[in-house]
Amino acid sequence: MKNIYKIIACFVAVGLVSCDPEFENSVEDQGFYDAGDANFTNYVAVGNSLTAGFADSALYITGQEDSYPNIMAEQFSFVGGGEFTQPLMADNLGGLLFNGQQIAQNRFVLAVDAQGNLGPAILEGTPTTEVTTSATGPFNNMGVPGAKSFHLTASGYGNEAGILTGQANPYYARFATGPNANVIEDAASLNPTFFSLWIGNNDILSYATTGGSGVDQTGNLDPTMYGPNDITDPNVFASVYSQQVDALSAGASGGVLINIPDVTSIPFFTTVPAQSVPLDAATAAAVNAQFAQYNSQVLPGLVQLGVITQEEADARMINFQAGINFPIIMDDDLTDVSELLQGPPLNLPADIANLLGQLRQANNNDLVVLTASSVIGTTPDPSNPLGVVGVSIPLEDSLVLTAVEQERVATATASYNATIEALATANGLAYVDARTALAQVAATGVPYNGGLLTSEFVTGGAFSLDGVHPTPRGYAYTANIIINAINETYGASIPTVDIGNFGTVTAANGI
Q1: Predicted local distance difference test score (pLDDT) of residue 116
Q2: Hey, which residues does 451 pair with through a beta bridge?
Q3: How far apart are CA 274 and CA 369, in angstroms?
Q4: In terms of Cα–Cα distance, which of 507, 424, 5, 432 is closest to 254?
Q5: How far is it, in rounded angstroms, from Cα 244 to Cα 462?
Q6: Which residue of 233, 342, 409, 420 lies most exposed, with the fewest beta carbons within 10 A?
Q7: 181 in helix, strand or coil?
Q8: Looking at 10-24, 370-384, 397-411, 420-434, which range is the least confident one?
Q9: What InterPro entries is this protein classified in (predicted)?
Q10: Numbered ranges of CATH 3.40.50.1110 in the chain
Q11: E-assigned strands of 171-273?
């Protein structure tokens, strides 16, 4: 399945090389631009990795320089905006060191592997960004990669002592004002005249990207009990988000709130098709023979015992045919029958019972994550050539986001977005519907001067090589939709940028 990374040769035409940004609007007459009712003298951006300029699975200098807040700040300079500072990394490798030991991997670049497949590869080299060496602030860009909504108000989130235990964030530790500081207090202490707040993506994203391996914590109001891949309770989100808006709005002339996109529309979930296992007729027949007893005896027996319904039995049926097939997967939302299968009357061996315990075949409602492409069709055990992942070995639950899990993500997202929009309206702040904007990129693409911005992995131009975070061109598009919302809300006339003059993915030497 590594062939999923093979890219058509003409991808160079979509723009691999970074270009100097240029304005979409003419800047010959700078007097035309106006701040309207807002004051951009001291713009402060608060958020997570999207705000920081994270891309290609890392934070690095050129990515930060093309972050949407930095692009916006350059445009604000035409209407009285002041200096915009960022906690720049020490290099363009993107890795992090903690007391000399690397704790975060380097960035991805586009490269060719040993089999000739084109795809993401980790850039080699030793990073030089040491977490314990504090960056000299203050900084206008308060984007913290990995931060969830409740992290922004958590004291000690930047305490170096808690980094290795997961209680603190290494990116925030680089520029926190003290070991007990929190992000919102640090941001508010800058006395912003204008602010942007984009937070909440990570409250659902890690659940989604790990195939629903976390817990939907809806109903649990204590975030200290949450795991790293859990969905944040909507009431917790509403409470902390309201506090953040109040703190940032206190002395500001205005601000902009950005909602949460549909994470399942990003390339991380749309690149690998659910139906992705090619089999010839003979192989399909052989695999079906292996599952014949499971289909004809085990499943009907479980229905007779009242353990599962007939509907669930139908969903668990395994049937391969000649052509492109759906892989078999583990679904932790199915009834776990492994222990029952080990007892009478079936008395199956433990390994077989565990395999069948929550087994089913994928369908078109499932989303297979990007990283699954490297394992589907492989034979992980050299001594067992018949052990093929997706055929006789199920895909792990963490590699598939099922329809049930997607619904949990969608429900939480809808609640978060209702909170964001309501607070924007109540406080007279600009509101950006990033969900709709990203949906357009994914569905039809967004035309610009010289091309079409889409969510196609690598070639579409919008997303970086991690399949989650934007490219510089994607961040420029983001900056434009935010600027447009600001102009509309505050009667401003801030110029947007020509997104075609921003680069996309970076190719390794020799590509």
Answers
A1: 80
A2: 448
A3: 9
A4: 424
A5: 29
A6: 342
A7: coil
A8: 10-24
A9: SGNH_hydro_sf
A10: 2-270+404-501
A11: 194-198, 254-258
Among 213, 196, 218, 244, CA closest to 44: 196
For residue 450, name the pLDDT band (cuts at 50, 70, 90).
Answer: confident
Residue type, 93: L
DSSP string covering 379-413: -S-TT-TT--BTTTBPBPGGGEE-HHHHHHHHHHH
Apex 376 CA angle, 374 and 464, nearest 5 = 35
Q: Which residues make Cβ contacts (< 8 Å) with residue 221, sequence separation at least 6?
A: 233, 235, 236
pTM beyond 0.85, yes or no: yes
Which residue(s) pair with 109 in the sheet? 121
Secondary structure (DSSP) of 296-337: IIIHHHHHHTTSS-HHHHHHH-----SEEEPPEEE-TTS---
Shortest CA distance to 204 belongs to which of 416, 465, 370, 52?
A: 416
**pLDDT digit string (tens) for 453-496?**
999 999 999 999 999 999 999 999 999 999 999 999 999 999 99
Cα end-to-end span (Å), the chain: 21
174-188 pLDDT, tens digit per residue, is: 999 999 999 999 999
Reply yes or no on whether the pLDDT at 15 is more than 60: no
User: Under CATH, which architecture does the 2-270+404-501 domain have?
Assistant: 3-Layer(aba) Sandwich (3.40)
Is residue 328 a contact partner of residue 390, using CB atoms and an 8 Å limit?
A: yes
Closest listed residue to residue 321, CA positions, set 288, 273, 344:
288
